[in-house]
Amino acid sequence: MAMKKSAAKGSTAKVTAAPIADPTLPRSVVNYILQRRRVLTAVHSGRPFEGADVCDADHYLLKAARFHGVHTTQDCPVCRREQLTEVTYIFGDELGHISGAAIDPRRLLDLAERTGEFRVFVVEVCTQCRWNYLTRSYVLGDGVFRRPPRRPPDLLR
Ligand SMILES: [Zn+2]
């Protein structure tokens, strides 16, 4: 399951009217731990999970893991040959051209302080067997809506 731009389209809730006290504090947190456990139980019992291949990280996700991923100390739950990498994606109308991009999570705090609202999705990926799973998502931002930034000049042509 790779993150696709369309997957999270419209997932950002309407911007709240009041400014947020701490723009960097995750809110509207959604955890997918239980679903993840259910998938892994199926995988380990040899049952195909609803007909889907769960080790299907595509080229873009593997590339994002290589360039923007954060290495964890957690072993891959499927192949156990490699430690998982977490890839952070951001979605939001105010983000303009970077909405849907994988970013270095160290940029999140800065973005949170100059963006009204955007949603963060964290995907774990094994670059060995290509297991990947959306583990959590949450909203950041200061609640003050801004116009999306214009494209950087190097992307205009
Ligand atoms: Zn693996």
Q: Figure out the total of helices.
A: 3
N-to-C CA distance: 32 Å
Number of structural domains: 1
**Class by alpha and beta content:** alpha+beta
Low-confidence stretches: 5-11
Query: How helical, in percent, are the residues?
Result: 10-25%
* Average pLDDT metric: 86
Order of helices and strands: EHHEEEHEE
Total number of strands: 6
Q: What proportion strand?
A: 25-35%
Query: What is the overall shape?
Result: elongated
Largest sheet: 6 strands, antiparallel
Rg, Cα atoms, Å = 17 Å
Task: Identify every distinct bound molecule in the structure, by name, code or SMILES.
Answer: zinc ion
Output the keywords.
157 residues, alpha+beta, 6-stranded antiparallel beta sheet, 25% strand, binds zinc ion
Walk me through this protein's architecture.
- The chain has 157 residues and is α+β, with helices and mostly antiparallel strands.
- Helix content is 18%, strand content 25%.
- The chain has one domain.
- It is built from three helices and six strands.
- Strands 1, 2, 3, 4, 5 and 6 form a six-stranded antiparallel beta sheet that branches.
- Strand 2 and strand 3 form a beta hairpin.
- It is elongated and about 50 Å long.
- The model is unreliable at 5-11 (pLDDT under 50).
- Residues 76, 78-79, 81-82, 126, 128-129, 131 line the site of zinc ion.
